[in-house]
Amino acid sequence: MTHARARISKAVIPAAGLGTRFLPATKATPKEMLPVVDKPAIQYVVEEAVAAGLSDVLMVTGRNKRPLEDHFDRNYELEEALRRKGDESRLAKVQESSDLATMHYVRQGDPKGLGHAVLCAEPHVARQPFAVLLGDDLIDPRDPLLTRMIEVQERFGGSVVALMEVDPAQIHLYGCAAVKPLDEEGVVRVTDLVEKPTTAEAPSSYAVIGRYVLDATVFEVLKQTPPGRAGEIQLTDALRELALDGTPGGPVHGVLFSGRRYDTGDRGDYLRAIVRLACERDDLGPEFRAWLRHYVTEEMQT
Description:
Layout: E1 10-14, E2 35-36, E3 39-40, H1 41-51, E4 56-61, H2 66-71, H3 76-85, H4 88-98, E5 102-107, H5 114-119, H6 122-125, E6 130-133, E7 137-139, H7 145-156, E8 159-165, E9 175-181, E10 187-195, E11 206-214, H8 218-223, H9 235-243, E12 252-256, E13 261-263, H10 267-280, H11 285-301
Parallel strand pairs: 1-4, 1-6, 4-5, 8-12
Antiparallel strand pairs: 2-3, 6-11, 7-13, 8-11, 9-10, 9-11, 10-12
Helix pairs in contact: 3-4, 10-11
C-alpha cells in the first residue's frame, strides 16, 4: 500500500553567520540585511520560499541578529507616517515584508556549522520533510529551482540537493557530489558527497549550492555526525550517510541547476548581483544601463 507523502510547508533559513568578509559593514549590521538594490538579501530568500508554497519560515539566528526579526515585523510608527503623507507606494513596500509568511526564530548559540544550525530546527520541524535555504545564494525568481526540488522529493522521497556545474578549479569552495544519471532529465542520484575537496579529490564538477529539501531523518544522522572540517558539524557529511544505498531516510537525489544564481556572500559577486538586478528593473534599468555603458566606454578609453 502506498502512503501519500507529507506536503512540505516549512522552510529553514540559517542566518547566524558573522559575515566577516564584509567587515566593517557587518560590524553592527547582519550580513543578511545588506541591501541588494533596495531590499535586504534575506527578503529575496524568504520570497523564494513563499513562491514555492512554503508559508512557515524558521530563521536560525545568533547574536546581533535582532534587525532580521524587526525587518519581518510590523513598524507601526513608520507605517502611520507614510499613511499620513499619502505615500501608498512606500507603505505597501514596508508592509510587504511583514505579510510574506509566518516567521519563527531560534538562536543557534555557538556557531558549530551548518549541520548544527539545521539541527536547531528539529523542535520546530518535527518529523516532516522541510526545505533549507542559505541566505548567501539568491536564485532568480524566473528559475523556480526550489519548486522543482520539492516536486522531486515528493515523488522519490528522501532528500534532494541542488547541484550546479562549476569550474573544477573552484570546486574546493563547495561540497561536491558523485552522481549517477537517471532517466529523468535534470535529476540524478547522489552516490557520494565530499566537503570542499581538492581538484584531484573531487568526484565530479557538480557543486552543492545553497538549496536543500531534507527528510527529517537527517536530524538523527546529524546527532551522530562528528565535527569535520574547521571543527564544524557539516550537513554534507550527514547527507553522505543518507546517500548510501539502503540507508533509512535515503535516497539523496540532485536537481541540476543552470539558471540565474547570485552569490551575495562574496564581495565581488555581491556587487555583480546588484548590477544585474538593477539592470533588469523596469524602474531603474533603462537609466542605469545607459550610465553603465557610458562608464564602461570611458574606462576602456583610459
